[in-house]
């Protein structure tokens, strides 16, 4: 059985959360076809609807991640690309209705469980940490000579000199997590 939407799955973005809810509904429709008699065309219609909505959602979600400076955006885009490619292969290889129903339900479940419930929740976890760390450090650091940067493990302030080097193309890597630090502009 597939999980149903819960508020605890929220990434605190109204638009993305609404899309996630819709994807839960579409995945449930796809998953429930496995034990029903349906035609090949019905399966194709469900798959196409699911596929088209996922493409829109992925684009919107990537824009959101970019807007908040999510440091694992490129990695997340690769996951989106893999899911889309899997769906294209699935749609193009529809031969046997029963096999198709089984594959469709597995993809719906795998996509929901592994992507929204694991990967997308990392976005919210990072956003929460970055927001908290930025607000805490901005209380104790002069903003006019320090610039806030983040990675997945921490938020830190760097000097104007390092900030200028990064603006000119230099990359600085967090010694703890190994990720390139990303500028988090002050939203005040």
UniProtKB/TrEMBL annotation:
Keyword Transport set for record: yes
InterPro entries linked to this entry: Haemerythrin_Fe_BS (IPR016131), Hemerythrin (IPR050669), Hemerythrin-like (IPR012312), Hemerythrin-like_sf (IPR035938), Hemerythrin_metal-bd (IPR012827)
Gene3D superfamilies per UniProt: Hemerythrin-like (1.20.120.50)
SUPFAM superfamilies in the record: Hemerythrin-like
GO molecular function, one term: metal ion binding
Keywords from the UniProt entry: Iron, Metal-binding, Oxygen transport, Transport
UniProt entry tagged with the keyword Transferase: no
Domain Hemerythrin-like: 14-123
Family per record: Belongs to the hemerythrin family.
Name of the featured protein: Hemerythrin
Source organism per UniProt: Campylobacter sputorum subsp. sputorum
């Amino acid at each position: 059985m597939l999980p149903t939407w819960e508020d605890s799955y929220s990434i605190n973005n109204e638009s993305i959360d609404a899309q996630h809810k819709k994807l839960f509904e579409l995945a449930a429709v796809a998953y429930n076809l496995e034990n029903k008699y349906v035609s090949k065309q019905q399966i194709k219609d469900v798959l196409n609807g699911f596929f088209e909505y996922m493409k829109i959602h992925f684009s919107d979600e990537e824009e959101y991640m970019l807007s908040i400076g999510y440091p694992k955006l490129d990695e997340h885009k690769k996951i989106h690309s893999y899911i889309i490619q899997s769906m294209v292969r699935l749609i193009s290889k529809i031969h046997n209705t029963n096999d198709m129903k089984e594959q469709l339900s597995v993809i719906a479940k795998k996509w929901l469980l592994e992507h929204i419930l694991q990967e997308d929740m990392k976005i919210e976890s990072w956003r929460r940490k970055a927001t908290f760390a930025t607000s805490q450090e901005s209380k104790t650091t002069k903003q006019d000579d320090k610039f806030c940067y983040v990675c997945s493990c921490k938020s830190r302030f760097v000097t104007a000199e390092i900030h200028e080097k990064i603006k000119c193309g230099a990359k600085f890597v967090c010694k703890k997590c190994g990720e390139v630090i990303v500028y988090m502009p002050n939203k005040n």
